[in-house]
Design brief:
This protein is mainly beta. The chain folds into two domains: 158 residues, Immunoglobulins (Immunoglobulin-like), CATH 2.60.40.10; 98 residues, Immunoglobulin-like (Sandwich), CATH 2.60.40. The chain is 7% helix and 52% strand. It is built from one helix and 19 strands. The strands form five sheets. Strands 2, 4, 5, 7, 9 and 12 form a six-stranded mixed sheet that branches. It has a four-stranded antiparallel sheet with strand order 1-3-8-6. A hairpin with a 5-residue loop joins strand 4 and strand 5. The radius of gyration is 22 Å and the shape is globular. The protein starts with a helix and ends with a strand. The N terminus is likely disordered.
Length: 266
Amino acid sequence: MIKRIFLLLTFILQFSFLKAGIVVLNGLSHTYKVENGKVYKGKIALENTSSQPQNVKIFLQDFSYKSDGTINYSTPHTNDRTNIDWIKFNTNLVTLKGKEKTEIYYEITIPNKISEPGSYWSVIMVEPVEDIKPNDNKQGVNITSIVRYAIQVITDFDTEKAKPDLKFESVKIDKEEGIKVAKIAIANNGNLYCKPSATLEIYNRKNGAKIGTFTSLEMGLLPHTSKSFPIDISKVPPDKYNAVIIATDENENAFALNVELEIKND
């Protein structure tokens, strides 16, 4: 059910974008393991699914998020671990004919010296714009934005000397579409991007018997950001429990916390 919720949210987020006719074909997260002074190349594959021509502009922004759902797209250099200055495009504006596909190429030039190991990132914004039309009231032209898509570009430097540092911010029991969900807020206080998942082990408070083990989806977590990891616990009867929360990243680094959990009868 949690997977279906995420798929539904993804569909909702993308639907208005698809109405514009432009889709990104090769993913919304590009990750590179980089070295000093090296140049890395990437591309963004786009398709205009409509029958009408569509202008698309490409630009960079800084990016962060919090477990309360806040997402912040900010001007360049507001993030002290930005890699915006390293990224250059072959074009910032492209026009796709109806049903046409194209590729936008970019290069990442890593500085000869980076002060700290870990992850650096920004997002490439892909924004369809209306046809350029003359302005009847002013000289020049107007470009009206429609919707935009964010593609993360993450560069990991000297990862042997960097690590994530996962911390639990909060545990809340909520209800989504009639389903009881444990929302585990996890922050990455380290300096390396990781992809953790949260596991909830629930035990009977009286006799210590294990009620069950429940796991969230894996999600990416940038340094100094946090996310809420939802876990479906609809099969657990209302009661007071002891629980162990375990956050595990893709390298099997684990962080655990003992909590008391109360599931109420709504």
